[in-house]
Amino acid sequence: MGIAADLFFSADTARETLHRRITPTDQQQADQQERWNDLADFLKVRLKENTGYSIRTWLQGSYKFGTQIRPWTMDAQFDIDLGLYFEWEGKAEDGEYEPEELKALVQSALEEYQGDEENDATGVEDPKERCNRISFEPDFHIDVPCYQLDAARDARTLATQTQGWEVSDPKAIYIWFKNELDDNGLRTKLRRQVRYFKMWAALAFEDVGRPSSILLTVLITEAAQEVDLGLADDELLAALVPVIHNRLSHAYLFEGSEVLNPADQRNDRENLNRLSDEENKEFIAKLETFTDIATRATASMDKATAAEIWAEAFEHFFPLPEDNNEEALEKSAARNALVLAFDPQVQVVATPKKNAHRSWEGINSLPPIPKDCTIQFTLLNPPPAGATLRWTVRNRGEEAAIKNDLGHIVGTGLQVERNSAYNGDHAMDLTVMLGKQVIGRRRIAINIRGIPIPPRNPKRRRRF
Hints:
Mean pLDDT: 91
Low-confidence stretches: 328-338, 458-464
Distance between the termini: 73 Å
CATH class of the largest domain: Alpha Beta
Order of helices and strands: HHHEHEHEEEEEEHHHHHHHEEEEHEEEE
């Protein structure tokens, strides 16, 4: 088993793991399911009335594959794909509607649905090339691609905005994915690997230029045929990354950047890689960096160092050993002093925003504080010349999870400042690196309890 395997995944759902931190909560999944079911029921009725065609719906994409990840920032959203199928016999061209006409009908139906305030829908975007999109409170959207379905032939054709009818069969690629591994346990492990890759991509790329979910899913599934799937999650990820990097870099140099749809049996098979030439170069370069991170992490001699290195790829989503109380903080500090070259000493001061006369402070620790405090962290002892700092907030607890705010990289200076926003047991982690070597680390536990402290002299209510 890899040295950091149980920080990637554990059957103990109480443990803080990468997989747990990047996966939606049960409540978030239930909220999404309620909304897409209601939207599907509405669209089937409304569009049958509009067109006379029988309508089916089918979930597809990450939700269907079981590889959905939580939003990586508070501004991002969960993504759901709800396929909408207009049924008529024969080819798509045999129907009464052009593809852009069907998409216009879907757009109107979504706008009607959004207009009902009881639906919690916050807006409908302009039609995209291959789908229409409706957003919901608090943090997800539903993409609605529409298809012509010939049930007798089990054939599907996608309606696009400007490129006519496009051969596309989401059911076929889902069946391919399920059939690639007939062992359910291995398929579950592969789904976790897809989630890891997707979160890495979400953090490593801007929205434009990010490899798509289906591209990553196919690359990982095909790479899995070349590695030992019996490996623990950390070692398996470290084995998959270079396989994918080598495939794409070789293809880019000698064969082009195509990644063909494995479920497409046509002579002119669908290319799942829609990245531009420059975007492919960036993808390959970042896979090389990812390979380096995985290699250094799996070669680490202790779990804490491995976790710090994996955090270069997964940032605040990757937990540290202390998140599972495997080592008391004083033992961790003693190990830092003995093993690592630098022992950071951090002054911490918390001040209520509405009552500056009250404060809490400490060195390397802080007593429990209420919400709505400003917290200042200052490194007291200067690091070695050439060293770099990485301050990382790691949030835990139901409040932070529901807000999709499990943390972030704060800064790289000698002093940083944050606010206490959510009840729970959180942490500010400082990592000190010299080149690619971790030379020092410090965790400051931030325990937030209760409501904000009121102003010192609140205004008196006027009496009558």
